[in-house]
């Protein structure tokens, strides 16, 4: 660009403490400014059109043109023509530089629309400091405290279930019979097809493994004993409990979590309805009562599945298989299976309801509650099964 043309377009150089107190846009086609220092105040005069399409945007202009000793920046836009984001970028550059140097930035001389646009752009704040990492010992202590608090809440829930259950047996609970029947149907009869399919397959798998291994030892006829004892003592209660964790436990947790998110539980409390009798007790009683029936059903269909595999692979007569299965079963095995089914039903319902009650009040909390209830329920059932087997082994049952 011709230096003489540049000087003619911009006029005389303004008085300023910096070496070059004025800058023009790269195209120098009308948009220009000048600055004049008056003590600690710098007045910036804006002239011409400021259009990003024709003039471009100059970055860092404010940092380069604020000299030392400046305490206030003012603007004069009486000669300003058309403008767009080019002017706003220019003003923001000076505002950011003024904030870094603790200089007052006055916008009264600017157009009202430009002042509003500047107000919409938040000034840069301090860079947030990264929080220090919590030491391992502190994290361990916080985890232990959270586990202890959860244990206290769960113990309180179990205690309330026992107390309110005793009152229900005496007819003093506010639990509605209709709710109990509906929940028993959902946790019992509605689950029969899934329980049947899984336990038939488990009985067939036990029979197939027994045939494969026992036949090598010449003891293939004992496959009926293996299927009967394995299903009654271990597989039927355990597999039925796992099915109910994924089906009924997840439904309980999601239902309670959804009610938490919709504030329905708070509404029940506000109108004086006992939430525990209305929501918690029917679900615990229903699942605990249905689990022994599902266990018996699972044992029957599991033995039938083993019978089918045994008859197909060994040609064992149906009558002989059933007689050997009956002779191998004892009241001890049946008692252990029934006790497991009752205990598993109580654990699944309590875990699911506890997870639902502590869920957050948003849409994601419903899915998280269902997932947590299934995982915690399955882990709890398997751990309890191991404890019961260990105790039965010690007692010689």
Count of spatially separate domains: 2
Topology order in helix (H) and strand (E) letters: HEEHHEHEHHHHHHHHHH
Biggest sheet character: 4 strands, mixed
Helix content: 55-70%
End-to-end CA span: 103 Å
Helix/strand-derived category reads alpha/beta
Read across the widest sheet, the strand sequence of neighbours is 1-2-3-4
Low-confidence stretches: 1-31
**Global morphology:** elongated
Walkthrough of the structure:
- There is one protein chain.
- With 397 residues, this protein is of the alpha/beta class.
- It has two domains: 109 residues, Transcription Regulator spoIIAA; 223 residues, no CATH class.
- The protein is 67% helix and 8% strand.
- A four-stranded mixed sheet has the order 1-2-3-4.
- Strand 1 and strand 2 form a beta hairpin.
- It is elongated and about 110 Å long.
- The chain starts with a helix and ends with a helix.
- The N terminus is likely disordered.
């Amino acid at each position: 660009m011709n230096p003489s043309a540049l000087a003619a377009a911009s006029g005389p150089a303004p008085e300023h403490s910096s070496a070059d107190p004025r800058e023009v846009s790269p195209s120098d086609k009308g948009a220009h400014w000048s600055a004049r220092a008056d003590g600690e105040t710098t007045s910036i005069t804006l002239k011409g059109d400021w259009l990003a399409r024709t003039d471009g945007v100059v970055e860092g202009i404010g940092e380069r043109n604020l000299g030392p000793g400046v305490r206030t920046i003012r603007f004069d836009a009486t000669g300003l023509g058309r403008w767009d984001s080019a002017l706003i970028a220019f003003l923001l550059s000076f505002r950011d530089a003024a904030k870094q140097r603790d200089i007052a930035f006055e916008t009264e001389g600017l157009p009202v629309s430009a002042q509003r646009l500047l107000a919409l752009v938040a000034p840069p704040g301090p860079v947030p400091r990264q929080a220090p990492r919590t030491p391992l010992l502190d994290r361990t202590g916080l985890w232990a405290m959270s586990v202890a608090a959860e244990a206290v809440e769960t113990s309180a829930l179990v205690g309330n279930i026992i107390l309110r259950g005793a009152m229900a047996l005496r007819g003093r609970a506010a639990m509605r019979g209709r709710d109990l029947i509906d929940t028993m149907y959902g946790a019992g009869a509605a689950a029969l097809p899934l329980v049947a399919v899984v336990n038939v397959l488990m009985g067939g798998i036990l029979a197939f493994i027994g045939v494969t291994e026992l036949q090598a030892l010449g003891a293939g006829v004992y496959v009926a004993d293996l299927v009967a004892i394995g299903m009654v003592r271990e597989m039927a209660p355990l597999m039925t409990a796992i099915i109910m964790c994924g089906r009924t436990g997840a439904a309980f947790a999601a239902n309670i979590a959804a009610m938490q998110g919709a504030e329905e539980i708070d509404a029940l409390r506000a109108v004086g309805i006992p939430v525990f009798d209305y929501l918690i007790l029917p679900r615990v009683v229903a699942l605990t009562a249905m689990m022994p029936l599902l266990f018996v059903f699972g044992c029957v269909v599991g033995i039938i599945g083993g019978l089918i595999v045994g008859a197909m692979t060994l040609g064992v007569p149906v009558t002989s298989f059933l007689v050997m299965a009956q002779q191998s079963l004892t009241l001890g095995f049946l008692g252990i299976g029934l006790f497991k089914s009752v205990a598993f039903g109580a654990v699944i319902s309590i875990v699911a309801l506890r997870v639902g009650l502590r869920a957050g009040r948003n849409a994601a909390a419903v899915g998280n509650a269902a997932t947590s209830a299934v995982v915690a329920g399955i882990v709890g059932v398997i751990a309890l099964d191991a404890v019961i087997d260990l105790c039965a082994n010690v007692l010689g049952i």
